[in-house]
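User: I'm preparing a small set of examples for a lab meeting where we compare how different chains pack in three dimensions. I only have the primary sequence for this one, and I'd like the structure in token form so I can line it up with the others. Please keep the answer compact; I'll paste it straight into my notes.
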Amino acid sequence: MGTNKRYAESFDRRLDQRIIEQMMREHQPETLRSEELQLDEQPLTRCPRPRPVRAWVRYGQVPLLVEAQLVAWTPYAAAIRWSVPDGGEHRAWVWASAVRS
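Assistant: Understood. Below is the structure token output for the 101-residue chain.
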């Protein structure tokens, strides 16, 4: 018996979304270390009002593109925050090149 291809893509998307949500609930995102940020050497700009962005974040070895808010940045890194499925919020510093407007 064959499979219904019309529903297979929808099912796959829902399954992928559940896996992403579970990963966000059970793990913390990776963030840049202080040696990488060099906040004592680089100028830091804080946003008076966070800007909506999309950014690549790693949860362990898994990269995820998240809808986030940009809250601060240096010439090389960006501080972002985003909502997670359990109603919480994650924060991380990521490389500036990982952020899209």
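A couple of notes for your slides: The two ends are 46 Å apart (CA to CA). The chain has a mean pLDDT of 88.

User: Perfect, thanks.
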